[in-house]
Amino acid sequence: MITVYGIPNCSSVKKTRVWLDAAGIGYAFHDFKKLGIDEATLKHWLTAVPLGTLINKKGSTWRGLSPTEQAMANEEASAIQLMMANTSLIKRPVMVSDKGIFVGHDEALLTATFI
């Protein structure tokens, strides 16, 4: 089973969900805004994905952080707390399956991994 983590109105999440639907691949969707994210899940992701990949530094949420908060993103423990408090800081989508943990929308990677 694949779980897609993100927010429904994110364009990258939409593209991934459309791709999965078109390919006939089933998945569960975890909405960060409604369901949040827990520390254990973030720690698990960070065993497979670098912190710099998981944190979205291009979005408005990042730009809205104070310099002190942005500095927190450099250390795993404080970055996890920051992502739990501001789920929009997590790059989207995050896809978790028995084939790995993938961050961002990449159709070539999706095709190579799931088709």
Short structural description:
With 115 residues, the chain is of the alpha+beta class.
Could you name the key traits of this structure?
4 strands, 8 helices, alpha+beta, 115 residues
Give an overview of the whole structure.
The protein is α+β, with helices and mostly antiparallel strands and 115 residues long. It has helices at 11-22, 32-35, 39-45, 51-54, 60-63, 67-72, 76-85, 107-114; strands at 2-6, 27-31, 94-97, 100-103. A four-stranded mixed sheet has the order 2-1-3-4.
> What kind of oligomer do you see?
single chain
Q: Give the overall shape.
A: globular
The helix/strand class is: alpha+beta
Question: pLDDT below 50 for ≥5 consecutive residues: which ranges?
Answer: none
Integer average pLDDT = 95
- Report, as a whole number of angstroms, the end-to-end distance: 14 Å
Strand order of the largest sheet: 2-1-3-4
- Order of helical and strand elements: EHEHHHHHHEEH
The major sheet is characterized as: 4 strands, mixed
Number of strands: 4
- Rg, rounded, reads 14 Å
Number of discrete helical segments: 8
Draw up the topology in text.
Layout: E1 2-6, H1 11-22, E2 27-31, H2 32-35, H3 39-45, H4 51-54, H5 60-63, H6 67-72, H7 76-85, E3 94-97, E4 100-103, H8 107-114
Parallel strand pairs: 1-2
Antiparallel strand pairs: 1-3, 3-4
